[in-house]
Structure formats: structure tokens, C-alpha cells
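Example (one chain per record):
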Amino acid sequence: MEKIIITEVLYGLLGVFVGGGLTFLGQGLFRRSDEKSNQSHSASMLFHDLKSILNYIEFINENESTTRTCEVNIRYHDDWQSKVASCTFLTDEHIALLYSLYDVVYAYNYAFNKKVSADISRNKSSLTKMMISENIGFLELLEVLEKHIKSRKKSHSI
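Predicted structure:
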């Protein structure tokens, strides 16, 4: 009788440990999946933000004679810093480039809102250099973001 009670207690403890271990493993898998999903979402937001800014700059450069008439605030996601932080796959160089780009976009928008033409022109020129003419690392950054988005979409479809 005493052996049966001890055996039942041991089986009960074993069940608790096995159940706890499985719960811990399952929670880890779901957390990893959530992190990957957040990274993919953040990469997508950054990618489309950057493409939108690039399209604006290209449009302005193609229509240089009408730049005064088509100057507008550049739209971008307000929470871009947390999106960058979520993309742990980015290198330090990519992060530095993103901060530089968004700093210039912010300065451009500030100058636009204050109606300071010289600053608008200078910041537009800086964006053109960073994104088009001297696009050091910019195209690579877009490729990295796009690859991360596509690889995540493939793993979701499997």
C-alpha cells in the first residue's frame, strides 16, 4: 500500500515536470515565431517607407523645373526607431544609414513646415545623394529588408 502511494506521488511529480517542460518548449517556439513575425512586419514597414521616400526623391529629381510646386512633407512611419530595433538582422552600418536617412527626412520636413527654402533644397540634395547618386549601402539595405520579407513569406506559405 505504501509503495503504491509513493509510486503515485512519483508519477504525479513526473507528470508535473514533463508537463512543465513541454509547456516551456511550446512557449519558446511560439515566442520565437512571434519574434520572427514582428521582425518581418518591421522589415516590411521600413522597406515600404524607404521605397516611398525614394520614389518621392526620384519624382522631384525628374521634375526639377517644378520642384517648388511639388514640395510636400515626406510621409514616413512615426515609430521607425522601434521598427529598426526590431530588425535584429540589420548590421550596424545599416542601422547608422537608417538613422542618417530619417534624420535628413525629419530635417527636410521641419524646413518645409517652417518654409525655409534653402534648408529644403539642402536636405533634398542630401537625400538624393544618400538614396540615388551616392547610394552607399542604401540599395544593399533595401535588398536585405526585401530578402527578409520574402524569406518570411515563404516560411509562412509552407
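Caption: Residues 38-157 form one domain.
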